[in-house]
Write a structure and sequence with these properties.
The termini are far apart. The protein has 8 helices and 17 strands. It is of the alpha+beta class and about 350 residues long. Strand 12 (about 245-250) and strand 13 (about 255-260) form a beta hairpin. Helices cover about 30% and strands about 30% of the residues. Helix 3 (about 155-160) packs antiparallel against helix 4 (about 180-200), helix 4 packs across helix 7 and helix 6 (about 220-235) packs across helix 7. The protein has one domain.
């Protein structure tokens, strides 16, 4: 009897160990723990914890533009800009970054690290301002001077990434037969976002200088006040622990997106821009029915499901490449530099 009891105990111990290993293997690369939800109104955040990768942090696109270490240049092609790192430090670009200026405001469609003295290279973009094709006020119509905002819409991001996993797709250039259709969806997304935000804050947010500009709409005073209500509650939670490397966003009870970085330092650099985008998306959905915030287990399952999708890879610049995991309900896109995943973005196909 003692031997049988001991055998049963051993089997149970092995089962527990295997269960733990299975749970750990389901986590994305670098993530050791999911924490949350932290909830305010219809927005829930889940923080992803893990060890930070050693090494210097790149400048963000916003920092590099402010320091004049990077140039983003108009090409007169709505869906392609040119970018150049003229400085001595790496510059991190995240898909969804909005650049302000040129002949029309654009959003960039690829995440990557731009190496120092890169030379001028093309980068895929989508217009987030319809109609204008000349200088706006005193802005330079040949270049872009700021990048303080990110696209605040899961649907727009999915439209930008549509069919990007196909072998014929090109993340670094938007010159394809499908680009026009995707651009139309992005413009539709801008209009829809403006309408939803205007309805939920009780005033129009279109700017007099350019009514179609998403960037200028997001600077509306009434919207900023609504954003502040969320920010005061949620922002400190992303700044309190030094092992946070990512965040998952759920709106109205449905998981929307996630972003993971290799180090807490880069997460913190991107935190305000990403939090603002999540808050703005949530404000636009305030009048929709919602449910309880998903559990941490639901979040883990969401992240793990991306690894079951079809995998494709595209070379970008130098040793940078884009790896796409196209699952049934989750699209995950990695920006890899060598063996390092610099950014991993998850988008729910439905919420």
């Amino acid at each position: 009897m003692h031997m049988l009891s001991a055998l049963r105990a051993s089997v149970l111990a092995v089962s527990i160990l295997l269960a733990g290993l299975t749970a750990a293997s389901a986590q994305p690369e670098g993530v050791t723990r999911v924490d949350g939800p932290i909830v305010h109104r219809n927005l829930a955040l889940y923080f992803l914890h893990g060890a930070s990768r050693a090494g210097p942090l790149p400048l963000t696109l916003q920092e590099a533009l402010e320091k004049r270490q990077v140039r983003v240049v108009e090409t007169s092609n709505v869906n392609e800009l040119k970018i150049e790192n003229v400085g001595e430090k790496d510059v991190f670009i995240q898909a969804g970054d909005i650049v302000k200026g040129g002949r029309q405001d654009r959003t960039l469609n690829v995440s990557l690290v731009l190496p120092p003295k890169s030379g001028q290279i093309p980068i895929a973009s989508f217009c987030v301002e319809a109609g204008r094709w000349s200088a706006r006020g005193r802005e330079d119509s040949t270049s872009f001077a700021a990048s303080s905002r990110a696209v605040p819409s899961r649907e727009m991001k999915l439209a930008m990434k549509e069919n990007i996993a196909r072998p014929s797709g090109n993340a670094f250039s938007n010159r394809s037969s499908e680009t026009s259709s995707r651009q139309s969806k992005v413009w539709d997304g801008v209009r829809t976002t403006q309408e939803k935000l205007s309805r939920n804050i009780g005033q129009g947010i279109e700017a007099e200088a350019s009514a179609t500009s998403l960037e200028l709409s997001l600077d509306n005073a009434g919207l900023k006040k609504a954003i502040q209500g969320y920010t005061e509650v949620l922002a400190p939670h992303g700044e309190q622990q030094d092992d946070i490397i990512g965040v998952v966003v759920a709106i109205n009870g449905g998981i929307s997106s996630a972003d993971i970085y290799p180090a807490n330092g880069l997460f913190r650099k991107m935190w305000k821009k990403q939090l603002d985008a999540a808050i703005i998306e949530a404000i636009g959905e305030q009048d929709k029915p919602g449910g309880p915030a998903p559990s941490a287990g639901d979040v883990e399952a969401f992240l793990a499901s991306a690894d079951k999708g079809a995998v494709s890879e595209q070379k970008l610049i130098g040793d940078s490449r884009m790896v796409t995991h196209d699952g049934d309900n989750v699209l995950a896109v990695e920006a890899r530099r060598g063996a390092v995943v610099m950014h991993r973005n998850y988008l729910a196909k439905t919420r």
